[in-house]
Structure formats: structure tokens, C-alpha cells
Amino acid sequence: MPVFADIAVTTTATLDLWLPEAAPRATLLWLHGGGFLKGSRKEPVAAALAERLLPQGVAVASGDYVLSGSAASLPAGMRAEQREFSRQAQQAGLRMARRLHGPAFAAALLDASALVAALAGGAAHAATAGRPVIVAGHSAGGILALSLAYPPQQWATRIAPPQAVLALAAALVHPWALRAGGPPARLLVANRDRIVPPADAAIGAQMAAERRADLVLVETGIAGHNQQIAALFDGLDQHGHPWFALLERLIEAAAEVS
């Protein structure tokens, strides 16, 4: 597996990249969790994804983004908007910790967008230029993935959108940004989760149905926050189909469209 490590995208956003032997037909970007306080692209999930997806002609990237970002680190025009969006998130009924939709989230979102743009545009590596980018992430990384696909209108020009999203143990923190015609998104959640309550994910799913957005909530029936990663790799749905096929179908659809 050709691995290109430590590709600097911004001063705080860095990529590791695995490439298949032939030109990739798509790129999967993995975003780690950690509550915007901790976490690393070096965690083993991305390498496990590469082992499964490289034989299918899919490049895999793992990205770091800024941690513990403050309001002062945001562009001036985003600061008041971020405060208002965080207030709206609470009004919408989200019960997750405020930091998960606060300034640290917004700063990380800008870095995540830069990672998508670097992959899609070829700045990270020429092999990924023009290929669709699918973003997958767990917890904070899943929140970022969903927000890349469906940012508030005021931030849309700042955000490089992916072609599809798979989020694990996450929720959409700006559910009012959902719209018809956006990227397909799948949200894999537990029946019990102390970090991101399943009820938070359900708010987005309900609004997606009302707005005809292509966001589908998938309950694994497995309790636990971190356990959703194991569910993705090894779990089966009620029909005996692997949950990993959700990701493969998203990639396949994105690759066909491109």
C-alpha cells in the first residue's frame, strides 16, 4: 500500500494517504473523533479502511484538524454566526455537549473543508484530483462529516462539500440546513449513547424527511458510542448484511456519478 504521510494542508490540518495500485476511482476521507479536544489521524481505523477499500480501487485518507479551536481563531464574519447557530442547535432540542457545536467545532469544520478541497483538487496528491470524495467519521468526526454535506447557508461558500457521507455515533448540529438535492448521508447510531444521544440524531432524521433530504438514520441495535466503529467493520443488520456495505454503496454511487 503506497502511503504518503504527513501531507500538510493548512497549519493545523494534515493528511495521511493510501493509494491503490491503479488510479483511484474515489477517495474516502476518514475524520477521527475525540470531542474536538483530542484524537489523531494515526489511529488504526484509517489503516483498516485502507486494507478493505484499496483492493476496490478506492484511495483512503486520514485527516487531522485543529483541536480546541477558539472563537478568536475563526474568521471575523463567522464568530457571531457560530454563536447564533449554537443557540439554534440548543433550541432545536440537541442535548449533546455545547462544545460539540461551539467554536472548536467551527474551527475544525474549516480544516475538514480544506482537507476535502485538497483531495478533490489534487493539492494533496495528483492521483486524487477530480475524484469524488466521500467523508466518513466517528463522533466529532461524524459531526464534521455531516456538516460538510449540509452547512448553514451562511457558511456554504466556505465549505468544500463531499459527494457522500457516513457518520458514526454522531448527529447533525445544524438540522435546519438540510435540503433536497444534497449529498447522500448515512448515520449509523447506537440505541444507547452517553456522548451523542440517539435523540439528537433523530432530530436530523425527522427534519430530513420533512425537507426530502437524503439523510438516513440507521440504528445498529448495539449500545455504546465507540462500539459503532466495530459495528461498521464487523456488524450485521437484521437481514445478515454487513453494515460495511453501507459505506461501499455510498462510494459506488459517488464513483458512478463522477
Task: Look at the structure and give the CATH class.
Answer: Alpha Beta
Q: Give the total of domains.
A: 1
Query: So how many helices?
Result: 7
In helices, the fraction of residues equals 25-40%
* Portion in strands: 15-25%
Spatial strand arrangement across the major sheet: 1-2-4-3-5-6-7-8
CATH fold label: Rossmann fold
Describe this structure in words.
By secondary structure, the chain is an alpha/beta fold. It has a single domain (3-257), classed as Alpha/Beta hydrolase fold, catalytic domain (Rossmann fold, 3-Layer(aba) Sandwich). Helices cover 35% and strands 17% of the residues. It is built from seven helices and eight strands; from the N terminus they run βββαβααβαββαβαα. The protein has helices at 45-53, 76-91, 103-121, 140-149, 198-211, 227-234, 244-257, and strands at 3-8, 14-18, 26-31, 58-64, 133-138, 164-168, 185-189, 215-219. An eight-stranded mixed β-sheet has the order 1-2-4-3-5-6-7-8, with helices on both faces. Helix 3 (103-121) packs across helix 4 (140-149). It is globular and about 50 Å long. The two termini are 24 Å apart. The model has no long low-confidence stretch (mean pLDDT 96).
Short descriptors:
8 strands; Rossmann fold; 258 residues; globular; alpha/beta
Question: Summed up, what is this model?
Answer:
This protein has 258 residues and is α/β, with parallel strands linked by helices.
Topology:
Layout: E1 3-8, E2 14-18, E3 26-31, H1 45-53, E4 58-64, H2 76-91, H3 103-121, E5 133-138, H4 140-149, E6 164-168, E7 185-189, H5 198-211, E8 215-219, H6 227-234, H7 244-257
Parallel strand pairs: 3-4, 3-5, 5-6, 6-7, 7-8
Antiparallel strand pairs: 1-2, 2-4
Helix pairs in contact: 3-4
